[in-house]
Amino acid sequence: MAFSSSCKMKLTCVTSHVPEAILKPVLEDITREELEIFRSYTITSIDEKLLISHAYNAERGQYNGSIILGSVRSLLSSQIGKNEKVVVVLDRDLYVPGLNFIFGIAEFPGRFAIVSITRLRESFYGFQENIGILMERLKKEILHELGHTFGLDHCPNFCVMMFSNCIDEVDMKPPKYCKRCKAKIIKGCNP
Fold first, then answer.
1. Quick check: is 36 catalytic?
2. Cβ atoms of residues 188 and 151 within 8 Å
3. What letter would DSSP give residue 111?
4. Per the domain annotation, does 160 fall within a domain?
5. What is the pLDDT of residues 43-66, one digit of tens each?
6. How many domains does the chain have?
7. Longest dimension (CA), the chain
8. Which structural domain range is residue 36 located in?
9. Distance between alpha carbon 158 and the CA centroid of its chain, in Å?
10. Whole-angstrom distance between the N-terminal and C-terminal Cα of the chain?
11. Which of 1, 7, 70, 146 is the 20 to 30 A CA-CA neighbour of 39?
């Protein structure tokens, strides 16, 4: 399954506290191995306060992902191109009303997604930090949220679009789309 040359997009990763040494290899894997649709990627920095200032819920000690997604949309919509997807990678514990926590959130379909590394870290669960595990989990969650921006729902197949209710479920799913989900992305890019 291949993407047509007319369906090339740019991937922008926006962050404030996540090191480029973690993000760059993850984005290279995504653009080279799984989503060749992205002709390039960039990593840019942002003042995190602009995104999270109104999203903190003191009772929960967490940040409302829906509010942050709205802030991302408001701040960045006029700055990105039509064929561009933006993933914001934060190190904040996120939730949405009705769920205890989320690993990420995205427009469905749309151009913007957010992934948090807080619960992807081994140290969150009381274990020694492992950068390799963090990078693998981050890759899966970025692919998952990008899938939502392409209009993919949660998938019952062995696929990166499987719903993950806990970190063990993130670890169990593969870092790639199943044939059905990849075909939907390709079909959307080749109308």
1. no
2. yes
3. S
4. no
5. 999 999 999 999 999 999 999 999
6. 1
7. 49
8. 9-154
9. 19
10. 14
11. 70
